[in-house]
Specification:
Length: 393
């Protein structure tokens, strides 16, 4: 048995990129079908990013899904950098007149799924073996299997929003493109717990034992990360060991007491910088992690997915509304110009704050000098602030 359907934009992946794209397109009268390999429960439970740039908040407002975000999100006017026994506050509002909002990716995803399922169009959960055909034709097709039945979705365009391990990027002709990659010799161990945060603002700490980050999801839920080595296993990190390590790395400066409690999520993620160019070929367009990865230190991953979606949506609206394909043809170049700047910032923040060289090395002296300079220069603080709050779309 085989089934055939038709839509304007076939979207692969119900992560933040795919869901936001579908929502914005619908508000412009453009139909889509989202094919998602996982279940709704799995997608809604995936704990990831937590910091939204002001531009991302603006896009979620435009998408009409910001009600809960404005009610429960925490507006932050700055962050703190703890290093060399001192804490330096980077005052976003004073330096850039902008802020960021702490609101979990899980919540963004839930809000977008709820809006989608309230009448915008289908999300096909558990779509297996999605395959992309005919991207150089004007009727690309997506094949997939659902509960043992083969389906074909005929589209005008395909949006590859299926993350780093998806099928979209490998469907671009390899000979046409180029990839750029940097791996880092450490990972992040994250812990989520229902305890009050140790500070009102995020603290990024560079400590001789390694990097640590104190973040949060709400006044009663904390998110912490520590730099760990890549060969470490999560089983080697019972909660008590993580809390002890956090106290050591965050504690040498005057940090309020860390409240500890049982973890509700714990995971280790490797750090990677990756860009695949171009982000389009024929009628296939990549957005978000499908095209690029940043190390999480600058809190940019989710925000980059949102700016890609903005550019792609605008281009599709011009195509359907005015028959003008200039923006579609320029999508990759436009998106990449912003992507590369976020890659630079994420790489710089990562290299500034993680420990990967002996304390006596030249590189460690460079880190100290850079941190010293940051502490003494308003110009340097402004550079950090304007990148952290997000460059304009
Ligand atoms: P994704 O969120 O990856 O969504 C892709 C979707 O496509 C998924 O739902 C997936 O199931 C689906 N999919 C994949 N393959 C297929 C297929 N073949 N067929 C159909 N569907 C498919 N960023 C930060 O800023 N801070 C963080 O702390 C942070 N932590 C992270 C931790 C982890 C473990 C990971 C993986 C990422 C983290 N990120 C973080 C990055 C941030 O979460 C991503 O940049 C963001 O999720 C990108 O959204 P996306 O929609 O492009 O991709
Ligand atoms: C969070 C994650 C980040 O990568 C970051 O830079 C800041 C906050 C978080 O999950 O809260």
């Amino acid at each position: 048995m085989a089934a055939q359907e038709r839509t304007q934009v076939g979207i692969i992946g119900a992560g933040p990129a795919g869901l936001l794209l579908a929502r914005l397109l619908k508000l412009h009268g453009i139909d889509s079908v989202i094919l998602e390999a996982r279940t709704r429960d799995y997608v809604e439970a995936r704990v990831r990013a937590g910091v939204l740039e002001q531009g991302t908040v603006g896009l979620l407002e435009e998408a009409g899904v910001a009600e809960r975000l404005h009610r429960d999100g925490l507006v932050h006017n700055g962050v703190e950098i703890a290093a060399n026994g001192q804490r330096l506050r980077i005052d976003f509002r004073a330096l850039t007149d902008k802020t960021v909002t702490v609101y979990g990716q899980t919540e963004v995803t839930r809000d977008l799924i709820a809006a989608r399922l309230a009448g915008d169009g289908p999300i096909v959960w558990k779509a297996a073996d999605v395959a992309i055909h005919g991207i150089e034709s004007d009727r690309p097709r997506l094949g997939y299997r659902l509960a043992g039945v083969e389906h074909t979705l005929i589209c005008d365009f395909v949006a590859g929003c299926d993350g780093f391990h998806g099928v979209s990027r490998p469907s671009l002709p390899a000979a046409l493109g180029q990839t750029f990659e940097r791996t880092y010799p450490f990972g992040w161990l994250g812990i989520l717990a229902d305890v009050p945060p140790c500070s009102d603002e995020l603290i990024y700490a560079s400590h001789p034992r390694g990097f640590a980050l104190a973040s949060m999801r709400s006044p009663t839920r904390s998110r912490y990360y520590i730099q760990c080595s890549l060969d470490e296993k999560i089983e080697e990190w019972p909660d008590a060991r993580i809390w002890d390590e956090l106290k050591l790395r965050l504690g040498s400066e005057p940090v309020p007491d860390i409240t500890t409690g049982p973890s509700i999520e714990k995971s280790i993620a490797p750090l990677r910088s990756f860009v695949s160019t171009p982000m389009q070929h024929g009628r296939l367009f990549l957005t978000g992690d499908a095209a690029h990865i940043v190390p999480p230190t600058g809190a940019k991953g989710l925000n980059l997915a949102a700016s890609d979606v903005h550019y792609l949506c605008r281009a599709l609206v011009a195509h359907y509304g005015k028959g003008n394909d200039d923006l579609l043809n320029g999508y990759s170049n436009t998106a990449l110009a912003r992507v590369w700047k976020a890659e630079r910032f994420s790489w710089w923040m990562t290299m500034l704050l993680h420990r990967l060289h002996p304390e006596t090395s030249f590189e460690a002296q460079m880190q100290r000098a850079e941190l010293d300079y940051l502490a003494s220069s308003q110009a340097a603080q402004t550079v950090l602030a304007e990148n952290y709050v997000g460059l304009p779309f």
